[in-house]
Specification:
The complex is a heterodimer of chains A (344) and B (475).
Chain A: H1 64-95, H2 97-143, H3 151-160, H4 167-175, H5 183-193, H6 196-219, H7 223-244, H8 251-266, H9 270-287, H10 292-315, H11 325-343
Chain B: H1 3-11, H2 13-27, E1 29-37, H3 43-55, H4 67-70, E2 74-79, H5 90-98, E3 112-121, E4 133-142, H6 145-148, H7 158-169, H8 174-177, H9 179-186, H10 196-214, H11 227-230, H12 260-283, E5 289-294, H13 296-302, H14 304-318, H15 328-333, E6 339-344, H16 355-375, E7 379-384, E8 391-398, E9 401-409, E10 416-419, H17 462-470
Parallel strand pairs in B: 1-4, 1-5, 5-6, 6-7
Antiparallel strand pairs in B: 2-3, 3-4, 8-9, 9-10
Helix pairs in contact in B: 1-2, 13-14, 14-16
The chains are: A mainly alpha (344), B alpha/beta (475).
Chain lengths: 344, 475
């Protein structure tokens, strides 16, 4: 009789070392191995600056719709204006040839002067940008204690001041640079000596304008008119500071600068604010004795001064290491004298 | 006797002088600047050049990076050295440096002090309430650098000193130089009485060996006792006949009163009490700022032994100064050093592009001392400077490459040379690298320091050193 096929395996003991596991369990550590040194290559420890492409939570900005919107508006407006212009010309020529001529001359004149203005504005913008680049470059040089890397900066600075009325002074100082100076010292030296005259002028201008603005606000009888006055003063001052530092004071550049100034004042670091407030505080203890209007005047004056100093920093082609507090303090003092003097 | 006289006798002369100093300090600004440096590190030249530039600060624009002078706020400077007991020979040094051909001043052999009164206009600000004009009194003393080496002796007794010297003299090149002298010493029983003549002879020979170690090719720095290096007399003061006992007997427990060792011990004590202490107490406890002058190029020329020795010497010396932050009151009563500038001198002896490296090499030499000083929250800085610039920057074309080099006159022969002196390493060179083909720094003769019409070209970074050390007092 056939042994019935056992459908199951009998239980038995197996020696542990006989177990033939299909997969060797991976050791929990990497064994120490000796490698021939020529097969290795040095790994740079410093992380290379990789583009942060996979940082979560930074969705690409949705600018597309905005762009479409702006371009559509632009196309619409230009075509409408063009159509209107065409109709105006057409109508005027229909009216009389002379009238048509007059209108076309007017249009040409407007176009030419507009382009001229635009060019000037662009030049001002370019100079402003140049100054910023120069300043950034100088700041980087100041951080590093290298020697002989400043030549490029000096060339650019010479170019920047080529047509400036006080360019001669800057150029002279560039030629006075000692051959032993390192880059930090060159920046320091130029910032201190080459721009001395311009700094002085700018500081005078700031002082004059802030005091005038302060006094104006203090004696003006209409509250809303004050603001207008202070704003007007600030704008005038920006223009002067720009021309002092050799930047063409075109309207566009001026607006750009004003934007930057307001931006930097609004987002100034806490320490800056504290420092500026310190000088104002000096005034406030005295201010308690003054009327609200005089206090407003002081505030407007100091705000103008702060705007001016920030504009000065932004227009300067080299970083400014001077403290701004002494000037703010002296302005505050002078303003107090003037305001209390006018009220007595 | 008046009231003042009575108070004087009650307090004693020293106290009265101290009080006088305090009131003077309270009313005016006094600054005591410690110009520290081993011998031949350029202390005298620094003081002379600094004085000359300050005296002309109102007319010549020779200090463009010294803010007060650059802003034209220095009205005038007056040399008040004549008021001091031992005036600094400023005119003599200036004459030496400004004649044709100019020469370096002779090495200093005695103490002298200089006092400058600098009248300046205060900048706009709160300090104007003190008056528009202020005066800063700047006190500097000049002394032989060898004397500094003695300061560490104040902190140890004879046995400790002997142990230190034993360690030093067990290494080459010291060991080779004193070998025969050491053998003589070994033959003596130090616990038995010895003839004074024998000791004197040993001392004179030790002095000669010490002076030999100071000269190139060894050019060592840490050679004590320092005053022996200057002494040339055949039969000097007995306390100057001092040497360490290098045998094990120096550390014996009980020493008989009449033994040779006891005699050496007495000489050591007299030396400390008579030569070092008065100098230290009188001049070295009152500093507000410190300038440490170091000649790095010498160490590069001479090799690693010289480097190590200079490092050890500077560390030992700087431990004797009182560092720490000092407030206004503290500065009145017991001043201490609150700012230290480490300067590598002879910056004109290397090309300008090597100055950053020179700074870093200086940092290598003084890093231990600097760490100690920083621990006390004291500001420190390294700078390469030249009090008087003796070379001109030049360029040479060699094998199609443009090489920046120096042009000047040799110190010894005064012939004109152009030299590319080599690059300063930023790390300690390997032993095989200390050789003449890598570093060849020669000594240049000075260019004349004019009596008027000083220019920034006459120095390197003297203005920045001055700004760092004193700038805050003019603000």
């Amino acid at each position: 009789m056939n042994e019935p096929h056992q459908s199951w395996q009998s239980a038995r003991f197996i020696q542990p070392d006989q177990i033939d596991t299909e997969q060797e369990p991976a050791p929990s550590f990497t064994p120490a191995t000796e490698l021939p040194p020529e097969h290795t290559s040095i790994v740079n420890d410093l992380p290379t600056a990789e583009e942060p492409d996979n940082i979560p939570g930074q969705a690409p900005p949705k600018r597309f719709i905005g762009k479409v919107f702006t371009s559509c508006i632009a196309i619409l407006l230009t075509s409408a204006a063009g159509m209107e212009l065409y109709r105006l010309l057409d109508w005027s020529f229909e009216l009389h040839t002379w009238a048509g001529m007059a209108v076309s001359i007017l249009v040409v004149l407007t176009l030419v002067s507009g382009i001229w203005q635009l060019r000037k504005s662009l030049a001002g913008l370019k100079q402003l940008r140049e100054a910023e680049h120069l300043r950034q470059e100088a700041e980087t040089l100041q951080q590093e204690h290298t020697h002989g890397h400043a030549a490029q900066l000096l060339n650019k600075l010479e170019q920047h001041y080529k047509y400036h009325p006080q360019g001669q002074e800057v150029l002279q100082n560039i030629h006075h640079i000692d051959s032993t100076y390192n880059d930090t010292e060159i920046v320091h030296f130029l910032s201190k000596h080459a721009l001395q005259q311009q700094d002085l002028q700018a500081r005078h201008c700031i002082q004059r304008h802030s005091i005038e603005a302060g006094v104006l606000v203090a004696i003006s009888p209409w509250a809303s008119f004050d603001m207008l006055l202070a704003g007007w003063r600030n704008f005038r001052m920006l223009k002067e500071i720009m021309s002092i530092y050799g930047i063409a004071p075109s309207a566009v550049a001026q607006i750009k600068l004003l934007r930057k100034v307001l931006h930097s004042i609004a987002f100034a670091g806490l320490s800056d604010m504290a420092m500026d407030a310190g000088s104002t505080l000096l005034g406030t203890s005295v201010m308690a004795g003054l009327s609200a209007r005089a206090g407003q005047g002081l505030g407007a004056g100091l705000f103008t001064a702060r705007t001016g100093l920030t504009a000065m920093e932004l227009c300067r082609p080299l970083p400014d290491n001077q403290q701004r507090t002494p000037l703010l303090k002296s302005i505050a003092n002078e303003l107090l004298c003037k305001i209390s003097g006018t009220r007595d | 006797m008046g009231l003042a006289g009575r108070i004087k006798t009650l307090l004693g002369d020293e106290r009265v002088q101290q009080l006088h100093g305090i009131t003077e300090r309270a009313l005016e600004q006094h600054l005591s600047l410690a110009v520290t440096g081993l011998s031949r590190s350029g202390k005298t030249v620094f003081i002379t050049a600094l004085t000359q530039h300050l005296l002309h600060a109102d007319q010549d624009q020779s200090l463009p990076l010294f803010t007060a002078a650059a802003e034209g706020r220095i009205l005038s400077c007056r040399n008040l050295s004549a008021e001091t007991d031992t005036p600094f020979p400023f005119q003599d040094n200036l004459t030496t440096l400004s004649t044709h051909p100019p020469a370096w001043p002779k090495s200093t052999r005695s103490l002298s002090s200089i006092k400058l009164a600098i009248r300046y206009r205060r900048p706009a600000g709160l300090k104007r309430f003190l008056g528009e004009f202020g005066t800063l009194y700047l006190d500097i003393i000049d002394y032989p650098g060898e004397w500094l080496l003695d300061l560490p002796l104040l902190q140890c007794d004879y046995a400790q000193w002997c142990r230190e010297q034993q360690q030093l003299f067990s290494q080459s090149p010291r060991r080779d130089i004193i070998e025969s002298w050491y053998k003589q010493q070994q033959h003596i029983d130090w616990l038995a009485p010895a003839s004074a003549h024998q000791l004197d002879q040993l001392a004179l020979e030790f002095r000669q060996r010490l002076q030999q170690l100071r000269e190139p090719p060894h050019a060592l720095s840490l050679l004590q006792p320092g005053r022996l290096l200057l002494e040339q007399a055949e039969s000097p003061d007995p306390s100057l006949l001092l040497f360490p006992v290098l045998t094990e007997q120096a550390f014996a427990e009980d020493i008989p009163e009449d033994s040779a060792l006891a005699e050496m011990k007495r000489r050591y004590q007299t030396y400390c009490a008579h030569w070092i202490k008065p100098f230290y107490k009188r001049h070295f406890c009152q500093f507000d700022r410190q300038l440490v002058l170091t000649d790095c190029l010498q160490t590069l020329n001479q090799g690693e032994a010289c480097f190590n020795d200079m490092q050890r010497a500077l560390n030992a010396i700087l431990q004797n100064f009182d560092y720490g932050r000092a407030g206004w009151l503290r500065r009145l009563i017991k001043p201490r050093i609150e700012r230290v500038l480490f300067a590598a001198t002879k910056a004109d002896h290397v090309t300008a592009n090597q100055h950053p490296n020179l700074d870093r090499f200086l940092d290598l030499i003084i890093q231990d001392a600097r760490r100690e000083i920083r621990f006390e929250e004291v500001d420190t800085r390294c700078m390469a400077l030249a009090s008087i610039r003796s070379t001109e920057a030049a360029q040479a074309k060699l094998d199609g490459q443009v090489l920046s080099c120096l042009r000047g006159h040799r110190k010894e022969s005064n012939e004109e040379v152009a030299l590319f002196p080599g690059e300063i390493p930023v790390e300690l060179p390997q032993p095989e690298d200390w050789n003449e083909s890598r570093f060849r720094f020669i000594d240049f003769a000075p260019r004349a320091l004019p009596r008027s019409g000083l220019k920034p070209e006459h120095h390197i970074r003297l203005d920045q050193a001055l700004e760092y050390l004193t700038g805050d007092l003019f603000r």
